[in-house]
Amino acid sequence: MRILVIEDEPALLLQLEKGIGDAGFVVETAADGEDGLFQGQEYPYDLAVVDLGLPKMSGIEVIQQWRKEGKDFPILILTARGRWQEKVEGLEAGADDYMVKPFSLEELLARVRALLRRSTGWSQSLLSCGPVELDLTAQTVQVEGSRVEMTAFEYRILEFLMLHTGEVISKVDLTEHIYHQDFDRDSNVIEVLVGRLRKKIDPQNKHKPIETLRGRGYRFALARSAS
Amino acid sequence: MSLNRRLLLSATFVLFVFLGLTGLVLDRAFYHSAEQGVRERLQGQVYSMLAAADFNESKKQIQVAEPLPDPKLSTPQSGLYAIIYSAPEQLIWKSKSSVGQALPRYSTATMADWHYEQLTGNAGRAFSSVSFAVVWEDNNQKRYQYNFQVLEDRQQFERQVSQFRNELWGWLIGVTLILLMTQGFILRWSLTPLREVAMDLIKVKAGDMQRLDKNYPQEISGLTEGINTFIDSERAQRDRYRNTLADLAHSLKTPLAVLKTGINLDAVNQEDVDDLQDQVDRMKQIVDYQLQKASASGRVTMGVTTPLLSNVKRIVSSLNKVHANEGINCQVKIDASLFFPGEEGDLLEVVGNLLENAYKWAKVNINVSANQKKINNKNVLQLYVEDDGNGVPEEKRQLVLQRGKRADETVSGHGIGLSVVQEIVSVYGGDFDITDSDLLGGARMIVTIPVV
Questions:
Q1: Alpha-carbon span A221 to A198, nearest angstrom
Q2: More confidently predicted of A187 and A38
Q3: Whether the complex's predicted ipTM surpasses the cut of 0.85
Q4: Cβ-based contacts of A82 with chain B (< 8 Å)
């Protein structure tokens, strides 16, 4: 999951980058509205955290511009004033949730996860597809009731695929949402990771949860369980 | 007393005195000139009598040649009478018109001096009378004095005078009425700008106008400019206060945010972290509270109103977005004609905090309604937010309303919301109450705000 954070206070931006990154997300940052707007326009993001009071271009304008251009990733706004006027204006501009400064990192992460879930159509933080269960909050995976240990990148790939269950995800998409911008896209690391993932969650090759569609990408093929 | 009435009353008084005196003077003048006319006419009659009279030497008596020059003297009861007495007071001759009339005699008749007087005859009949004495000498140079008297019935004179008076006063009253009407009209017209200013002030108060911006006449432009300056400075001052406090709070907030997010990442000792966290939370609450308080502008702004329904809907659709997938059903039943008597920011703050609270506690249903009614003879706007949550227990209600306290510490971001509502509502001179909702079974928040 690739998240853009736009915040002009360097200390807070650094903390957010570290905190959100440590929680298993790919974080890109921008320190002003113009840079943030550009990044949101140019790169695929799963979510943006936008401070409303930004230099060069206000957070509201950035959000409005994105929405006008059809960007539909969820947006979490940060407001310093906490005035309802500001919250309402932000939400009306196209944001999906708000947080009033100062906030705890846990709460921010909870909101971020909830938004990501909602934007992909999941209503609970436990993603359940047949025998595979992924807990977004605890970041754990269980297959047929028993816990499966995996590396951070394996987890990220599975999380992304499961959140978008049934959709075809190209390798480029996957790379962009899992790795930082400066990642070498030509390497075959994704294929390696997907291969390892298959072995871990489906050792007997029984359920075939991750399909490969030649030349198009991957698809998480198990249907969502009715909750 | 209104300006209009003062001006009208004083002008009316002056008008009546002036026209009354004018009337009196004209009346007197006419009366005197009419009287003078009668006198001259009667003198003329005496002259014509003298011309018609001649001394008869043989009878040693004067004789009057008939017919007399004025036919009225020959017509009985014509109102004009002539009598000649010899001195001492013996009737020598009288005109035919005086047949059967008892005519009063003059009081005195002297030579070379006209005597004009008013006499009263039988049954109170009034006469104007001119008397004049003439002396004839016969051939033996004996002198005979004759007193001529010409009388005129004053009835005709009185009729003339009263006719004049009727006409005069009739005209004067007519002119007075026209002048009064004109004056009333002029007053209305001249006072229109003042009335306009008054109306505009009411509009400013009601929020339909920002300032007194029309072109007012020079005489009152000083006043309207003064009012505008007052409005502006009041607004500027309010903004300044608000900005100062907001700046202060903001400058505190960023380091707080850094501290708060930093604690979890870098601290080692859990106890220290907890202490630090508590302190930061407290500071955050204080700053939040002061900031909200500072931004509650309240009634200090003259005349701003904000439509209620559309702004409540903004909050509801915002919260629906934030609480999507939670299955909350928020009903809004507010008449579109209702207005909140204050700034949009304050309304959003009140409704936002009330509804945020309701969304947090409601199981499924929230109901927002409002009405305007009279309480203790004052117009108030009442806003109700009800939910089907667990409600607020009696003993916790006061606590919830207290400054910066939270009834349930576990619900994040729940601390200052209701006390902010309380703060804003009290700035507007209103009330904030928490009761049970009969409709939904949860809490019912009631905000009551006086409306001008």
A1: 12
A2: A38
A3: no
A4: 288, 291-292
